[in-house]
């Protein structure tokens, strides 16, 4: 029994073809939207590639770009097919192409669904990439004279000021690394020498942060050195001065930023998938209704459906068809062998 069977007159078939022609052109526009979203995401990732440890997170943007380009081609072809299907004479040239086109378009809509899934499941991978990338970038903050690393100080400073964050997890990350270059240390100072000697790795560690960690909303001038020493500053309490520097880590700030972008893109792609599914449903009705019209009597009514049989029967038929493909190959191979008993 056919699933969701409808009866179409000649007028309804022509109107359906015209509507689908228009919807396919709208789908071409959605393909451009997909391409633009993928390109936007790729650019946003490239902007901060220095603080990302893995490049694999760009797979989502690459997929969106590819799917967007394919969508433009598929829907352009679909618009041409639907336009010709409003004329029975032009329909004949597409009669054998419609069903393979629907099958290919169905696979394409599945790729859209995969794109939605990728947008909502890359958070963990992105978090790990940010954690490792920021950790390495902060280590090289002081290396302003080393080729390949001289830009990292500016990158980290701009990042912390733009996203109002400090360090990887928090401002305390700066306490664990030497972020002041040795060229700016006074080696004649006893305090500097004591700090270098007291550290196993010979690093100059201080309880201070770069200027870019300062919170401009603080009511007092920024205190970025000796943050944990209450006696070093007048009327200062380390535990209560939360407005002095940014408390949030840059990993969390960037993760929230990219997550917001990915969720927005995922929602847009989900709506495009639903739209494409509706268009594909209409094309399926058009294909089956035209298939059931006698070519010599195009004015007759015809039935259209989504599935010719029930869903279970359709699945069983396709599974049996796939299984029999291997058997047909074996039979054809055996039939091609020479008959050894013929000459006996």
What does this structure look like?
The protein has 344 residues and is mostly helical. Helices cover 57% and strands 2% of the residues. The chain has helices at 10-47, 59-84, 88-91, 98-121, 123-139, 152-162, 190-198, 250-291, 311-335, and strands spanning 6-8, 302-304. The protein has a two-stranded antiparallel sheet with strand order 1-2. Helix 5 (123-139) packs antiparallel against helix 8 (250-291). The longest helix is centred in the C-terminal third of the chain and has 42 residues, at 250-291. It is rod-shaped, with a radius of gyration of 33 Å.
> How much helix is in the residues?
55-70%
Identify the strand order in the major beta sheet. Answer: 1-2
Secondary-structure content class: mainly alpha
> What are the secondary-structure elements, in order, as H or E?
EHHHHHHHHEH
Topology:
Blueprint: E1 6-8, H1 10-47, H2 59-84, H3 88-91, H4 98-121, H5 123-139, H6 152-162, H7 190-198, H8 250-291, E2 302-304, H9 311-335
Antiparallel strand pairs: 1-2
């Amino acid at each position: 029994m056919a699933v969701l069977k409808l009866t179409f007159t000649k007028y309804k078939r022509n109107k359906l073809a015209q509507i689908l022609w228009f919807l396919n052109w709208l789908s071409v526009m959605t393909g451009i939207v997909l391409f633009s979203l993928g390109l936007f995401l790729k650019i946003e990732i490239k902007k901060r590639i220095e603080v990302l440890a893995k490049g694999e997170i760009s797979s989502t943007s690459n997929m969106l770009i590819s799917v967007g380009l394919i969508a433009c081609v598929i829907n352009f072809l679909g618009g041409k097919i639907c336009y010709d299907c409003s004329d029975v004479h032009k329909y004949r040239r597409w009669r054998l192409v419609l069903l393979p086109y629907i099958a290919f378009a169905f696979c394409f809509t599945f790729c859209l669904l995969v794109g939605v899934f990728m947008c909502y499941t890359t958070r963990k991978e992105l978090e790990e990439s940010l954690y490792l990338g920021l950790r390495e970038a902060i280590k090289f903050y002081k290396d302003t004279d080393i080729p390949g690393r001289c830009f990292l100080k500016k990158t980290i400073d701009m990042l912390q000021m733009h996203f109002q964050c400090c360090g990887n997890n928090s401002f305390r990350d700066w306490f664990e690394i030497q972020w002041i270059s040795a060229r700016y240390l006074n080696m004649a100072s006893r305090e500097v020498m004591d700090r270098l000697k007291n550290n196993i790795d010979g690093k100059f560690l201080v309880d201070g942060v770069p200027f870019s960690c300062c919170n401009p909303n603080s009511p007092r001038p920024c205190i970025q050195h000796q943050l944990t020493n209450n006696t070093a500053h007048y009327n200062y309490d380390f535990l209560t001065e939360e407005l002095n520097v940014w408390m949030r880590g840059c990993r969390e700030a960037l993760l929230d930023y990219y997550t917001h972008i990915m969720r927005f893109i995922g929602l847009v792609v989900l709506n495009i998938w639903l739209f494409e599914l509706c268009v594909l449903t209409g094309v399926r009705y058009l294909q089956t209704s035209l298939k059931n019209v006698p070519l010599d009597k195009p004015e007759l009514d015809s039935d259209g459906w989504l599935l010719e049989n029930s869903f279970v029967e359709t699945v069983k038929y396709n599974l049996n068809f796939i299984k029999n493909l291997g058997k047909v190959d074996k039979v054809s191979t055996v039939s091609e062998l020479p008959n050894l008993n013929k000459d006996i």
